[in-house]
Amino acid sequence: MADPLDTLLRLRRMGVDQARRGLADCLREEEAAAAAVRQMEADVARETEHATMLTGGDAVVEDFALWLRRIRILQTAALTALATAEAHTHEARAVLAAGRAAVRAVELLLERRAAEQAAGEARAMQVALDEAAHSSRVD
Predict the structure, then answer these.
(1) In a domain, 56, yes or no
(2) Spatial CA neighbour of 47 closest among 77, 78, 68, 62
């Protein structure tokens, strides 16, 4: 019959593996969201520089103002997506930490049980030795 603690340990380790994969997914999503925010910031900087050149006329500045209004909405959405991705990553890290702690708890139970078993065997061996020594003195 399978030891319930060994089975529990396998299940907890599977949970940790799943949590690691979940964290990796979250990190990828977070990086993609951060890249989108960086790209938008670079676009704004580039377009701002272009609009502030002295060679451009009023039409360039007006076009920039319209573009900037639209991009600010997209930028806000991208920043919200990044914040959400960061929150998911934080949550995934917590899930992984909890999973690792659960694995360690089962490992400690198994270690404690093994130590108690070894101590019991040592006591039994000592009792046997004591009895053998006692019986050899009696004979």
Answers:
(1) yes
(2) 68
Residue 138: what pLDDT? 63
Burial of residue 86, with CB atoms counted within 10 A of its CB: 0-12 exposed, 13-18 middle, 19 or more buried? middle
Say if CB 112 and CB 46 are below 8 A apart: no
What residue numbers bound the domain in which 35 lies? 4-111
Rg (CA), the chain: 33
Mean pLDDT per block of 10 residues along the chain (139 residues) reads 91 98 98 97 92 79 91 96 98 98 97 94 90 78
Domain count, the chain: 1
16 closest CA partner among 87, 106, 120: 106
Alpha helices in the chain (DSSP H): 4-51, 58-138
DSSP conformational letter for 3: -
Tokens of residue 89, six digits: 């990553």
For the entire predicted model, the pTM comes to 0.77
